[in-house]
Specification:
This protein is an alpha+beta fold. 58% of the residues lie in helices and 9% in strands. Strands 3-2-1-4 form a four-stranded mixed beta sheet, sandwiched between helices. Helix 11 packs antiparallel against helix 12.
């Protein structure tokens, strides 16, 4: 009996979704592209999204994308993993986002995107600067991870003990952010290479917690009895180490004071 690999199932859903967007958008859709771990490898059935990029002729197609995505996500639990980015080709050529297409994902499209249907426009996408990538990832961290709710969860985990996706992302976000900052172009790091880089460092904070996140991402059960002491011992030190490195990086790139201050305030709240 042949068993379909999770990555193959995810790619089939991505291709199905691409066809649905083409039907909804018609000639306005220039192309659809795989991003993320389905494009560069390392897809995890337990933790990965199905990342899809859409490129349009014009910028006013967002509502059609949102409606089509909602309909697709209702088809199955795996369909709910769809994460879709979109922008017009003129904006991508100019290094702008006129839809939902952050700089890091635009860089992924240029470097690792895989054509699902339509024209191959990857070489036309303007690559964001390293400074732009630094600022974007820092703002993402403050907006998503430095909230009072998440900070409280880091100190007294509840959802982290039962939600495999949130557990792996919360532990591996700072690892990926730090590794991305060491790459020549500031490119998006995949989890496997970021983890390998982090664990190869001497005295890396929370190394055993990072190893556990790698195992859970690969399909190891998330056992609260195993995860709780690892989180208690390692999560805050992991983030404080990331914040210290990020503050240095932001200052080196001339980041706005309010962004640097937000990281310093986050560090105080964690400490």
């Amino acid at each position: 009996m042949t068993t379909t690999e999770p990555a193959d199932t995810a790619r089939e859903i991505a291709l199905e979704a691409a066809g649905a967007y083409r039907e909804a958008l018609g000639e306005r859709l220039i192309g659809a592209y795989l991003l993320g771990s389905l494009a560069y490898g390392g897809y995890s059935a337990a933790a990965s999204d199905i990342d899809l990029a859409l490129v349009f002729t014009e910028s006013d197609s967002g509502s059609l994308v949102e409606n089509t995505t909602k309909e697709l996500q209702e088809r199955s639990p795996v369909h709910r993993k769809l994460s879709v980015f979109w922008a017009s080709l003129p904006a991508l050529r100019e290094g702008r986002d006129d839809g939902r297409f952050p700089a890091l994902d635009r860089l992924q499209l240029a470097e690792d995107g895989r054509v699902l249907l339509g024209d191959d426009v990857r070489t036309e996408v303007a690559r964001p600067s390293a400074a732009e990538l630094v600022l974007e990832s820092a703002r993402f961290a403050i907006a998503v991870l430095a909230t009072d709710e998440v900070t409280a969860e880091f100190r007294t985990p509840k959802r982290l003990l039962v939600d495999k996706v949130w557990f792996t992302k919360a532990v591996l976000f700072p690892v990926r952010f730090r590794y991305s900052g060491t790459t020549p172009t500031g490119r998006a790091a995949n989890n496997d290479e970021a983890i390998e880089w982090y664990l190869s460092a001497a005295n890396a904070p929370a190394a055993s917690l990072v190893r556990l996140a790698r195992q859970v991402r690969a399909g190891h059960p998330l056992d609260p009895a195993e995860a709780e002491p690892e989180l208690a011992a390692g999560l805050v030190p992991l983030y404080r180490s990331y914040i210290e490195a990020e503050v240095r990086r932001l200052r080196d790139t001339g980041a706005p004071d309010d962004l640097v201050n937000a990281f310093e305030d986050w560090d105080k709240r964690l400490g």
